[in-house]
Amino acid sequence: MGSNKSKGIIGCSLVVVFFIVMIVMLVSKLIGGDSGEGSSGASLDKLIKYVDYDEKEVVKGSVDLSDASLYDELPDISKYPLTLEDKSGEIQIEIFSSPEKAGTGTDSWLIDMAESFNAKKEEIDGRVISVSIRNISSGLAADYIISGKYVPTGFSPSSALWGAYVDVQGAKLDMVEECMVGNVAGFLVSKKAGYKDYKEVIEAVQSGKINIGYTNPQVSTTGMNLLVTILSVYGNGDLTSGDAVKAFSDFQRNIPYVATNTIQMRDSSANGSLDGMTLEYQSYIQDKELQSTYDFVPFGVRHDNPMYACQGISTEQRQALEKFTQFCTDAAGKKEAEKKGFYNNMDYTSDIEIVGKDVKDALDIYKREKDSGQAIIAVFVADVSGSMSGEPLNQLKESLQNGMKYINDTNYVGLVSYSSDVSIEVPIAQFDLNQKAYFQGALNRMSAGGNTASYDALVVAMKMIEDAKADHPDAKTMLFLLSDGQQNEGYSLNKITAALEKQKTPVYTICYGEEADTEEMAKVSSVNEAASIVADPEDIVYKIKSLFNSSL
Questions:
Q1: Contact between residue 536 and residue 76 where contact means Cβ atoms under 8 Å apart
Q2: Under a CB-based contact definition with an 8 Å cutoff, are residues 282 and 344 in contact?
Q3: For residue range 112-166, what is the model confidence (pLDDT) as tens digits?
Q4: Where are the alpha helices (DSSP H) in 491-533?
Q5: Which among 98, 178, 233, 465 is most buried, taking Cβ atoms within 10 Å?
Q6: Over 291-327, what HEC string results?
Q7: What span, in angstroms and rounded, lies between the C-alpha atoms of 190 and 212?
Q8: Taking the model in full, what pTM does it have?
Q9: Which helix (H) or strand (E) holds 105?
Q10: Are residues 106 and 220 in the same domain?
Q11: How many domains does the chain have?
């Protein structure tokens, strides 16, 4: 009897121990602990074993087939407030300026000049002039002027490329000054690479010897400059020739990351996985860390920050703009600009000539060839947890619905939703009309509720991509995480990072809601050099469309 009793006690003890171990493993998984199969460094195959997910039946929704236009989605100009506002004058002028001269610190030259000018109370026929400055990227500024949605008095982009583009699109500009401040664009390339000529850098990228990042040509002057340079040089002046397009496709095929702007690119490249990036010399010369790490190799047309007068302004406003421009370009203005890093490399001259039609052709080629003939596999991961209830989920659905128009139908797209559980809403397939209808149908039925298992959902999406790569081994892969970032269930970011790094799939994050954890979302994007976007209700549709237009 004693022996049987002992065996019974031992048996019960083993059962208790077993259940304790199972509970510990479950809790560890739920809180992102370091034990069990889901530990840090676990493979994707191990991670997926501990994620419960289902595959929903696909249903079709009605797809909007109207033509896509970014101009239609431009937010109200108040979304980009005046950096310097002075409405005190009887003659008021407003200038759209590129960020490197209308920001803060070393980027504040034009702001400083406008403040000094306004303080002098300059007059025309006894009427005081006041100048306001709006800090806005050159490409976005061009969109407002071309669309007619908002037209300022003056426009000072980084380069005359944008003036040529605006002009050929029918929104005429009148040159006031060709060079407000001198600047050049270039590659920042790791010093150990030793490149001194921009063609060497381009060909090193084409051959896969180095990895660099550059900025979206549809928004960034430096990105546009690089695009027209490649097309012009390798097409011997004919940007639309087969040789030109092939050269760009060869270059683009080996680019791991196209950033929305320079700030995003620099943030994403901070982990050191890129051998270089594109930047203006004015920014480079102001940063000792960049100078110690990279050589500057100039390329393309000069960035001499011209000043244009826009259509529809009064004679007095034109005279006021000329007076302010002269003030900025006199000896004192030039001296202040030199302090901010401008007027270096003034002996640099471009070996290409570009007109407005060239810029338009180049952007058309970019939209068509940005995938470089290479298929893209993308999975959208949508947060439908309780914290996304209401406006955040509405914004998510609207931005995806409208953004679909900017995804090339040659790409392969899937959709995952998640709260406490994970669901494959739409399996990966070519994004033809049929797949778009399934995508829309899934958006229509989404509703919010439950906790937030963000990284479990990313694991499922990663597994979908891995499986799809078997059929398309040469395809690029992308993930888009749309969430408020408030993960509170399932794996932690730390637990999936190794698998994400191994797959090398960039995760673009879009943050929704006033309580969004933007810092956490930025960490996700930083793993494999991708952009993180804050979904402001006033311009999220425009941001999403711009992102898809450049990436998909």
A1: no
A2: yes
A3: 999 999 999 999 999 999 999 999 989 889 999 999 999 999 999 999 999 999 9
A4: 493-503, 518-526
A5: 98
A6: HHHEEEEEECCCCCCCEEEECCCCHHHHHHHHHHHHH
A7: 10
A8: 0.75
A9: none
A10: no
A11: 3
